[in-house]
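Sequence, please.
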C-alpha cells in the first residue's frame, strides 16, 4: 500500500519534472520570452504605466477575466521586457519596457504543472507533507535498493572467508 502510494507520487513528480525541464524549449508549456527595444532601465516606462497597459490589453483580449488581479511583475532587463503575471488562470502579458508595446498575451502552463509537481495545487500544507514524505520515501527506496545490491555481495564474501578459516583449521 505504501509502495503503491509512493509510486503514484513518484510518477506524477517524474512526469511533471520532465515537462518542467522542457518549459524553455516547448512554447505550449511556457510562452517564449520576447525581446524589447532597450536593456537600459533608465529608458523604461514606470511600473504604474506598465501595470495600466497590461490590464487594458489583457482585459480587452479576455473580458471574462476583468476581475483577475495582477499577481507579480517579472522584470527581465537583459531581454528588455516585463512579464506581467495575473493571479488566476496562469496568464501572462509580455510588455516592452521601453515603449509599452504588447509582445505577447498567453497562458503559462508551466505554472500549474509546477503546482502539480510540488503538491501546492492542493494546499501549502499538502505540499509540505507530501514533498517530505516523497523525499524520505525516495531516500528509503535508494537505501534499501543499495542494501539489496550490496548485502548479498557482503554475505558471500563473509561466507567465503568463513569457509577458508574453517577448512584451514
Amino acid at each position: 500500500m505504501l509502495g503503491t502510494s509512493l509510486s503514484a507520487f513518484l510518477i506524477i513528480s517524474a512526469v511533471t519534472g520532465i515537462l518542467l525541464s522542457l518549459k524553455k524549449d516547448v512554447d505550449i508549456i511556457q510562452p517564449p520570452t520576447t525581446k524589447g527595444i532597450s536593456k537600459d532601465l533608465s529608458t523604461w516606462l514606470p511600473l504604474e504605466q506598465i501595470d495600466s497597459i497590461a490590464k487594458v490589453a489583457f482585459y480587452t483580449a479576455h473580458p471574462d477575466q476583468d476581475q483577475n488581479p495582477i499577481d507579480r511583475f517579472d522584470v527581465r532587463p537583459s531581454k528588455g521586457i516585463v512579464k506581467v503575471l495575473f493571479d488566476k488562470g496562469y496568464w501572462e502579458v509580455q510588455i516592452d519596457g521601453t515603449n509599452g508595446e504588447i509582445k505577447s498575451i498567453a497562458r503559462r502552463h508551466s505554472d500549474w504543472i509546477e503546482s502539480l509537481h510540488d503538491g501546492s495545487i492542493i494546499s501549502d500544507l499538502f505540499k509540505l507533507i507530501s514533498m517530505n514524505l516523497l523525499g524520505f520515501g525516495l531516500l528509503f527506496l535508494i537505501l534499501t535498493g543499495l542494501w539489496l545490491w550490496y548485502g548479498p555481495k557482503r554475505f558471500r564474501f563473509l561466507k567465503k572467508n568463513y569457509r577458508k578459516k574453517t577448512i584451514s583449521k
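The first strand starts at residue 70 and ends at 76.
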